[in-house]
Amino acid sequence: MDLFRDTTDHTFARRTFVIGATGAAALMSQLGSAQNTEGEWSFTDDKGITVTLDTPPEVILMDLNVAAPLWDFGIKPDGLFGWSINADGSLGPAGGNVDGTDIPRVGNVNEPFQLEPAVNIGPDLILTLTWAPEVPGEYWSIEPELVEPTLKIAPIIALSGTGRADVNLLRFAELAGALGAELDSEEMIQAKADYEKALAEFTETVAKTDLVALFVYLALDETYIVNPPDWGDLNMFTNLGLTIVTPDVEQGIYFHEISNEVAGNYPADIIFVSTHDGRLTDEEIKAMPGWKLHPAVAAGQIFDWNQDFIQSYQGLTAALSNVTDAINASTKVM
């Protein structure tokens, strides 16, 4: 299924992101910068590629997973594409606060980037994610054979979806600022304050608990255990002190497929279930072989997880608060 494209069968050599309490500014400097003087516009993305335009871009196509955080910063797309757009054009949890009513689609889960509609829009710039910054030609939602013809339409900028979400947030802020966002507006100041509050509450909560969490994608005919080091949000959670079950797989394997019967091999106090395609009800999960005996499931400690986490102040506030609330509503069961 497309959900696991480029995630289950490949191990990527990737930049390792490490950040301490005082490391954010230095890391931003290392990852890239934007320069806008005398009309020229320039930005260096997370692949280390610098895009320079004669003037700031006015028409921008965005993968939905980039559009959602940039929307929260006040930057809106002129066209949307990507694996995370449903076949009917709806945006689902990946869309966050995006109001896509009047925004053209130039791709969806069945055909993530469509050249002809993209050409018709005439973009100055195309924005997407990279899950493998050091792999040339790897762009989320743009098939490898389409990269070259896409670059003939407009240059591509890719920001990281892997590493740590709190670090990537800084890069989205940097790109948004380069695209004209008012980062010192009252709305942004409040959004940042809310995020910092959620961050503090999360850190305080996990410091006082010994609960173990498990993140999964569940369907009636398939189960995937999520590998925390490769997910920006889960990487952030673990670095903030949360204990998350990690399958025995290589780095770069985002999902580890198992049979439902061996669910007990991954015990946890809390289970977070992906909402990417909608999710099974608690009752359906409790009826599944293997899972009905899992300690978290048996205790009814089942919660949502938006695997299309949104790397903005608002998006990460929601992600942090979701886990904090789940911990506060749960007890030790194993």
What tags apply to this protein structure?
Rossmann fold, 10 helices, alpha/beta, 13 strands, globular, 334 residues, four-stranded parallel β-sheet
Provide structural commentary.
This protein has 334 residues and is of the alpha/beta class. It has two domains: 2-182, Rossmann fold, CATH 3.40.50.1980; 189-328, 3-Layer(aba) Sandwich (Rossmann fold). It has helices spanning 24-31, 64-72, 115-121, 144-153, 165-178, 186-207, 232-239, 282-286, 295-298, 313-328; strands at residues 34-37, 40-44, 50-53, 60-63, 79-81, 125-130, 156-160, 212-219, 222-226, 243-244, 255-258, 270-274, 302-305. Strand 8 and strand 9 (222-226) form a beta hairpin. Helix 1 crosses helix 5 (165-178) and helix 6 (186-207) packs parallel to helix 10 (313-328).
Shape: globular
Q: CATH fold name of the largest domain, please?
A: Rossmann fold
Main structural class: alpha/beta
The CATH architecture term of the largest domain is 3-Layer(aba) Sandwich
Low-pLDDT stretches = 1-35
Mean pLDDT: 89
Compact summary:
The protein is built from 10 helices and 13 strands. By secondary structure, the protein is α/β, with parallel strands linked by helices.
Question: Helix and strand layout, with pairings?
Answer:
Elements: H1 24-31, E1 34-37, E2 40-44, E3 50-53, E4 60-63, H2 64-72, E5 79-81, H3 115-121, E6 125-130, H4 144-153, E7 156-160, H5 165-178, H6 186-207, E8 212-219, E9 222-226, H7 232-239, E10 243-244, E11 255-258, E12 270-274, H8 282-286, H9 295-298, E13 302-305, H10 313-328
Parallel strand pairs: 4-5, 4-6, 6-7, 8-10, 8-12, 12-13
Antiparallel strand pairs: 1-2, 2-3, 8-9, 9-11
